[in-house]
Structures are given as structure tokens and as C-alpha cells.
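Subject: Interface between my chains keeps coming out wrong

I've been trying for a while to get a sensible model of this assembly. When I model each chain on its own everything looks fine, but I need the whole thing in one frame so I can look at the contacts. Pasting all components below, labels as-is. Any help appreciated, I'm running out of ideas.
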Amino acid sequence: MTKIKNEKTIFFVLPAIILYSSFMIGPLIAMFYISTLKWTYIIAPPSFLGLDNYRNMFESDAFWTALKNTILLVATLLPVMIPLAFMIGYYLSLKPRGHRILRILMFTPGLISMSATAMVFFAVLTPPGLLNGTLNNLGFSNENTAWLGSTRTALTSIWFINLWQGVGYTAVLMTARLESIPREIFEAARLDGASNWNRMWRISWPIILDYIGTVTMLQFLWTIFGGAGLIILLTGGGPGYATTTLGVLVYGKAFSENQLGYSQAAGVILFIFGLLGMILIRRFIRAKE
Amino acid sequence: MKLSNRRLVGALAGIFGSAAVLTGLAMPAANAADTINIISLYKTSGGPEAAAMKLLISKFEAASGAKVNLTEAGEGLATQYNSDLLAGKGADLMIVNLFDGTSAWLENGASVPVDGYIKQWGLDKVIQADALADWSAKTGSGAIQGFPFAGFTWPLWYNKSLLAKAGIKSVPQSTDQLITAAKALRAKGIAPIVVGGSDWSGNKLWSQIIESYMPPAEAKKVFANGGYCASKNAMKGIDLFVKLRDAGVFVNGIEGYTADQMNTAYYTGKAAIMPAGSWAMPGTPPAIAKVTEMGGMPVPAGAYYKKPTAFQAYSAVGLFVGPNGLKKLGLVKQFVQTLYSAEVVAKFVSDVAIVPGTKTPLTAASLANASPLLAQSVTVLPSKVSYALFPDAYVGAKGTPLTKASALAYGAGVKSAAICKAADAAYKG
Amino acid sequence: MVSGRKSTGEGIALVPAHFLVWTYAALLGIPIYFVFASAFKDNIAIFDTPLALPTSFSFNNFVEAWNTVKLGRGLINSLIVTTMSEIVTIALALPAAYGIARSKGKIGAIVERFFALGFLIPAFAAMVPTLLLSIKLNMYHTLPFFSLFLSATTLPLSVILLAQFMRTIPTELEESAMLDGATRWQTLRFIYLPLTRAGIVLVVILNFLTYWNEYLFSLVLLGYDTSTRTVQVALPVLITNSTQYGVLLAGTLISLIPVYIVYIFFHRKIEGALLAGSIKV
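Reply #2:
Try treating it as a single job with all components included. I did that and got this:
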């Protein structure tokens, strides 16, 4: 009789639900509503517009480029980041030499604020910056590439920054979960002759698959929502629309271009996109079980 | 967790909790009759304007007997003021520059027009006509949005000693001369023109070059409404830009540079030319300042402007009056008068290198305290350049998307058609 | 945990892993070093020779950052907000997670779905309505309101993560406790709490980072007034037309110190918690 009956469950979950609903559900509904308004500055009086914001959006290059960039970024980033993070996490859980320092270092991207991260990568990627300096010293061409300023390399640079940010942080999360797997399971496998590689993929991976699913969803959401702030700080979505994602569109339209209505319309699309993505990820994880 | 730990956490929580409640309950300074609330971009410490700001505040407080409640804000000033206003706690006065975020205040009732007060308080004798023109709204009634204060000049800075190293005797006047000079500089490993290709500084230079063939009336229209592709003169300007870019006039990797990097490149003698405003003057190393000659952006043959172009305007920092300030007009008047007093203006000129919006004559004596570069810009420069139309007031809210288009333009190989298309797209939606 | 001696075969197989992981670690260490070194330099040195060691180790930049934007006050405000939010979140998420993990009927699943959906709400959608709410409640620019808001935004993650950890606890423990006459709350407090320590610490750390590093909402809901602004809002005030990057990075470094302290401190707690947990299991 360890399962809680319905009535009792409610007691436990109610406070959390109340706080959450007050601050998040209302705003969600508000987002849909605002997307139908013509509302520029927050102090400007809004007026009803119907679906015009959506129409403008669907007719603009900016939106479709943003959608394309978002899909591109997420679809190529996650399949690389999650397995890498898992492997590093497994490595850390073996407690190799120096693992304490490694753990602290690994978590660094998650520790520093977004503006600090932006400052650092700005210094690295700017034409007279660290990356070009290193490449020059190593004898590569003296091109002084503008990694963030050129349409050819901007989005890729963002991709790498996201990878840098996500792998270490996610790896530490993986380690936390991996370490609560009973050691006997691994010992048994080792005695059976399974190599580390096999133990990693054949044993740990399936055991924590649910957790991996959660972590993947976290990263997915962070990339499409939180990643926007970083892009805004580094490139503003430019040059042109090369690094504009849906999240950047929502931020930018709201705060740089002062078009709240349009911004919330993009927010609605972003919400739908997030929903679809979560469903896909969950399906994918279920299929693996 | 051990029991003692839990107690400790409990105690800490109690302390912080009560502190928080108390802090939350303590309202920010009330709207007492003898306080004036100001939100300001200028700070009282940590910037060149610090001493001048302290002077302004102390003079005002001494003269009026009132206290200044100053909130020093950063780039989010407009956002904060807007939400303060929504909450009924908007500041009385706002010290900030005129850009799309603040110029929207007037039409949305967040700031009040000051035409009436200027007349009433006899300030039309004190403020320069050009400054008032810059501060009048470009849409609607053309009301004056705030009290102008700081102006700027925005010439091209030429490092004469670097030019001499490359065998260039005098500052280029035409675009052909510029291209030749650029080649010579590159041969010596010196970057020609450096500017922040990715941000507002690059956007300004781009606009300046585009304008070469456009009469001001046409430029106003295009900057306000777009239509770059459709305008013959704008397209000629864009073609010129592309030609200069492809001829190597800009430093390599220009599209990734920011204004700060432009300053650093020029200050360290890596680049020979930069378009920078007078705000960059206080920070210039004296050695570089000594060899800098102010000039304009060279123009092509057949351009509308006969001399190299530069910008000068009064839309840098000014004083806005919020609706809440209307309740304290007496204090507002005294603050404005203190702001425009000779002592305060002179301090700002010498420390911040502003071009004052007041009719204060800038004598050699007052300039002697200021940066020598400012002196040059105000005395010698005007005869060497033509002043082009400063785009900001007309571009307005499109500034941010337009900057993305100009950032694109600095990239190698980007064609004119792509540039005008991107610029036009900035005005949509 | 007993780390047995690895056989030579295993040791060698790990070499590429050592190399890759440490390369990545270096890529992580360089930015930290950059922030650290730049805090002692001026603009020209920072841009010209970014990786060089500072020529002098004077604390001028730190003092200037501290005084110019009153970092001390900002740090205190950040601390107050963070602490309040942590307390509220844990106080609400623990029971909720327990309810979900051990729910008999459909309610648990529904509630879990409810919170999972919560992840999807783009944070900035909440901005304007939350601002309006704070004004309505007459709590505009107050720390308690902001803490409640922050708490709400991190509830989904906290609840779901804690539920996952709680599910791994064998039900027999609870069963035997209940047979001995324990109530639900007692089981939660004396059995689940100790055993999910690792999960709790994890949630506390993750939330701490969210609360401490938060910028956008802090800007809108707490503003620039020194009495309420957090350290993240105070720092960018240093950005002007001619920013002193050394000062800015020195200030950033100051804001990073508490983060590292908390992380290192709690990091040990995780290890301790897991050690205790695994011995029992």
C-alpha cells in the first residue's frame, strides 16, 4: 500500500501547482492573446489586429530563415552533444585520476552567466582575437576571418559555442545519475569480460535511458529558448539573418525592435516547435527501449 | 543533513527572509516635494562624466534645497523607465540620448514636449537652433522632445605619422586618392580604415558612404522609409561602397569588428584611419592624439557633397521630462538652468568632449582644457568638410535591423543587389 | 565506492578518452583564465595580448567595479533572492515529487504531464504579464515577488528531477515503515529525504545557477535601483561608449566567486550523499 490514493496525492502536489499556475499558465495564455494585438512599445496602447501578425511573419524572410536555422541547429547539435556528454559522464564516473578537477572544470560553462560567456567568446572569435591569433601562430593563413561576422561561418560558430556550453554541463549531470547505479552490475559484466566501451553502451545507456531523455529535452529547450540570449549578445542575429533563430526573433522583436505583438506571434510558433520537439524526443527514447 | 546544519539553514532562512520582507516593504524614495527623481545614463562614478555629474547635482541641490534621487541605468534605461511609468513610478527627468527607444516616448505620452518651457524660460536664447532642430520630432507635430545638451562631431580620424610611413603626404580627399592610399598602407602592413563593421559605428559609416550622391531631401526619405533598391542615387552610393570595400579600403575581417575594437586598433597604431565620434576623444592616448588630423570621408567625383563628409549633431545626451515631472516644474526649471550654466557646460566640454547644445562660445581658453582633438574638430574641421545628413532621427526604430543589413554589406563578395535588398527588408514589418 | 585496480588492457583503452577529455577541459580552462587575466589589465592590453599574463596584479579594476556600480549591494540582493527562491522551490517541489512518484491513480501522471508542459513555455512570454501582475499586487520592483516568480520558473525541472530520483528508492523501505505506523509525511521526511539527498543537492545547485545568473527578468522586475538590483543587472551598467573591459571583467569575476564556492561546497555534499546512499543499497 505504498501508492498514494488520489485524494492524498493532491495535498502533496497542490502548493507547487498553485505557485506554478499563477506565474506561468496565465502568461502562456497572455502570449497567445498578445500575438493578436498590434502592440509596439510596452507603453504604447495596444489594438486588436487578429491574425495579421502571423500573416506578416509568414511572409517575411526573417521568419523562414529563423525556422530553418533553428531546425538546423537543433537537429545537428543534439545527436552530437548527448552521446559526447554521456561518454564523458561515464568516463568521470570511473573516477580516473584528476576527476575532481575535471568535474569542476566541466561544469564551468553552466556556472558562468550568459554575458560572461558572450564576452569570452567575443574575445576568442573576433578578427583580432584568440582563435585567429592561434591559427596565425600555427602557420595557417593570415586571413583574419570574422568568424561571427561572416555569413559563411557565423552559424557554425554559434553551433560550436553551444556544443562547448552543453557538453561539460550535461556530462556532469550524466555522472550524477550514473553514479547511483549499483556497482555490482558493472562488476558482474566486467567479470564476464565486457570492455568499458561495452559496459558503457550496453549496460549504462539502457539503464539511464529515461534520464538521458530528460536531459536531452533540457538541452533541446535550452538551445531553442536560452540559446537565443547568447546569440543576441554575440551577433544580434546577424549578419543579415544568418544567425537568427526563432528564439532570437522573439527576443529581438520584443526588445530591440519594440514590436511586442509580432514577438509573441513568433513565441507561439516557438512554443509549438518546442512541443513537437519534445514529442519527437520522447518517441525516439521510447523506441530505443 | 545533520540536525545542526538544518538549524543553521533555518536560521539563515529566517534572517534572509525577514531582510527580504523589510527590503521589499521599504519603498524607493517617496515623491516628497523636495526630491526630484532622475534616471540617467551619465554616472557619478566610473566614467569621464563622473566629476561633471557630481558638479551638476551639487550645484542644483545647493541652489534649490531639494535632493536628487539618481538612478544610474545602463542600456536598458528605456525599458526600465517604461515599466516604471506603467507602475506609476516613472522618473521626473531622464538624462539619456535620443534614439529610437527614447524618441518613441513623446508619441506614447511617456515624455512631454518642451517647446512651451523653452519659450517661457527664455531658453531659446540659450540653446542653439541646430540643436532644437535635431530634437524636434520627425513625425507628427514636430514638437521638441527634450532639452538638448550634448552634441558630437563624427569626423574621420587620420593618423598622419602612419600615413607618412606609407608615403602619403596629405589626407585623401577623393575616393580615388583613398584607394591609392589604402594600397600604400597595406603594403606597409598598416590597416587602412577600421570601423566596427558589425555594429552601429559601421552602420554610420555605411550610411555616410551611401549618402554621397543623395541630396538631403532624398536621403531623409530613404532613411525614413527604405526603398534603397529603388533609389538611383542610393544604388550609386551602394556601388561605391562595394567598390571601396573590394579595393581593400577596410581592415581584413571588418565585418566582425566592434566599435571598441576599432578604437583599440586606432589607439595602438594598427590602423591609420577611423570614423569616430567625439566621445572617443577623452580616451585617446596623447601620443596618438598628437599625430591625428581630423578630416572627412572622401567623396567621389560627381557626388552631391563637394568636400569630404562628416557628421555633426546634437542628438547625444539630453534631458527629457516625464509626466511625473510636470508636478515639479519649479524644480525642473532650476535643474535645466543649472544644466545650462556656464560652469557645468564647461566641465562637460573639458571632461567628456561634448559639443554643447548651448550657445556657449567655445573659446580657445575653454577648449584648452578639453581634448585637443575636440579643439581641432570645432575650429579647423568645419572648413574642411561638408556635413552630411545624420541618419538616426529618420531611421528611428529601424536602426537595429538596418545595422544587420550594413553588417552584411561589409562582408567580402556581397553584391550591391543583396545589400539594398537587406536594407529594404529592414523596413518591413 | 571501491575502485578496483584496472587491468592493463582497460587502462590502455582509456588513453584516447584521457586525451579527448583533457583537451576539452583545456578548452574550458582557457576562458576562465582569460577572464581572470583580463581583470588585471586595461583595454589595450586585453585586446592586444589577450592571453598574456598581466604585467601587474593591482586590484584597481576590482575596486573600481565595486564602487562604480555598488557591487556589494548587488551581491546582497542576489543572495537574498537566491536564498528565498531556493527555500520556496524545495519546500514545494519535494512533496510534489513524492506525490508524483508514489501516486496510485492517474493524478500523478497528469501532474507530471502538467509540469513537463511547463518546460515549453518560452520564458519571455511571461515577461509582460508578470510585470503587470507585480504592478497590480503593488509589489513592483520588490525582492519577494521576484523570488516567487523565479521559484515558479524552476518548479518543473525541480519536480521532475526529484521525482525521478525518488522513483529509484525501493518501495519496501516505505512499506515496512508504514507497517510500523509511520505517516506519509514521516516517510517523506525520514526515508525519502535522506535517500534523495543527491537529487536534492543537484536540484539546489542547478537552481542556484539559474537564480544567480538570471539577467533579463531581473532587469525588468527589479530594475536599476541600487536598492533592488542584482549583481547581474549592476554589471552591464559599466558598458558605455568607451567601456573599460578590465573593470567589467573584474566585476564579472567578483560575481563568479560565490558561484564557484557554492558549487565546490555542494559538490562534496553530492559525493558524501552518494557514498552514504550506496552503502545502504
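Reply #3:
Confirming on my end. Chain A has a mean pLDDT of 85.
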